[in-house]
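Issue: ligand-bound run for 4'-phosphopantetheine - logging full I/O for the record.

Environment: standard queue, default settings, no custom constraints.

Inputs:
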Amino acid sequence: MSEQQIRRALCPGSYDPITLGHVDVLVRAAALFDEVVVAVLHNPAKHGLFGVEERLGFIERAVPEAVAPRVRVEAFAGRLLVDVCRDVGADAIVKGLRGETDFAYELPMALMNRHLTGVETVFLPGSPEYGHVSSSLVKEVARFGGDVGGLVPHEVLAALTEKFPAGS
Ligand code: PNS
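Outputs:
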């Protein structure tokens, strides 16, 4: 397939850390597009729980084998999403929506991004089993010793347990 025919989606986020809700969305994006770029957008002035290299590694190893050849993972520091889309040649942004709160947060960003360069955002309804799952909630629950097994990839679970032994 020539570069012109390839339909490429960009799945942006902080991914601090990736959850199984994110994995669900990127696998479904890979069913709709030829290629998926998972873009870890971060602010170099802010420290997340996990470093950027660690986040990239978690994502790379969480992508199921069946779609891995068509998924690439990259980090971008302090950039506008629309500029990242241009740089990687993305045809659309793909985001998962867990509910109306997500929609209220995402809609102005989708409209702004389309205003800036015309890039469209495709919203996928999040799978109900992950409707309560976000990186920030997972971190909070893990920090206080709650069980987040089944909500994040195994490697992320192990890393959270190491960071917060017995909820510290
Ligand atoms: O995982 P998150 O924190 O919900 O991801 C939000 C993210 C990084 C996708 C969003 O904040 C973003 O697009 N940041 C890049 C800067 C930008 O383009 N801001 C204007 C959006 S209209």
